[in-house]
Amino acid sequence: MVTNLDKLGRKGSDSIWITGAARSGKTARLVEQFCIWSKTVKPMPAIVSGSWSSGRRRAGQTAPAILVLAANGDNRLEFADRIAVATQGKYAFHSTTPFGFFEQEVLLFWPLLVQSLNLKAQFPLRLQPETELELATRLWRRELDEGILQQTGASPNRMVRRTLDILQLAAVSGTPREEIPRILEQGFSAEGGSNNLWTSMGELLERWREWCLTRGFLTYGIVCELYWRYLLQDETYQQQLASRYQAAIADDVDDYPAISGHLFDRMLLQGAAVAFSYNPDGGVRLGLGADTEYLGRLEARCRFVEKLDAKSGLAPEIGELAVNLAVNSDGFYPLGLNLPGSVRSLETTSRAQLLRETAEIIVDAVNSEAVEPQEIAVIAPGMDAIARYCLTEILARSGIAAVSLNDQRPLSTTPEIRALLTLLALVYPGLGRLVDRDAVAEMLVILGSQKHPEVDAEDPNPTFNLQSQSQNSKSIDLVRAGLIADHCFCPDIDRPQLLAITAFPRWDRLGHRAAVAYEQIVEWIEQQRSQQQERLLPSPIALLDRAIQKFLMNDRYLAYDRLSALRELMETAAHYWEIHGRMQRLESTNGGDSETIARFIQLLRQGTVTANPFPVRPEGPAARAVTLANIFQYRSSRRVHKWHFWLDAGSPLWLRGGAATLFGAPLFLRSQIGRPWETEDETVADQQRLRRILVDLLSRCSMLYLCHSELAVNGQEQTGPLLPLINSSVSSQQLA
Question: Which domain holds residue 334?
Answer without folding.
Answer: 315-408+619-735
